[in-house]
Design brief:
91 residues, globular, single chain, alpha+beta
Length: 91
Amino acid sequence: MLTSTFLSLLQRATQVVWATLFFCRTESEAGMIRPDETYEASTEKAVVTVRVVDATYVYIIGREDVLRGAERVLPPGESHLGAIEDMEFPE
C-alpha cells in the first residue's frame, strides 16, 4: 500500500489501539519483510517503523538521518535516541 493511501485511511480512524507499520522505499523492499521473522529483523529492513502500543505509546524507529526533524510534528513528550539493540519491544 502506498504511504499516501495509508495516511488517507488513517485520517478516518477514531483510535489506533495496537499497530506496527513498516514503511519502505519500494515495494520490493517491503516484500523482504516476512511475517515469520522477528520484530527487530523487520524493523531493521524498514526505512521507518511506527509502533502503537495499547493506544498509549507511539514508537517511531528509523535511522537518525531519516527521522531528523520528526519531533517538530509530534506531540510534546519524551523522545529517546539510541541503537535498536538497546530498545525494549513490547510484544
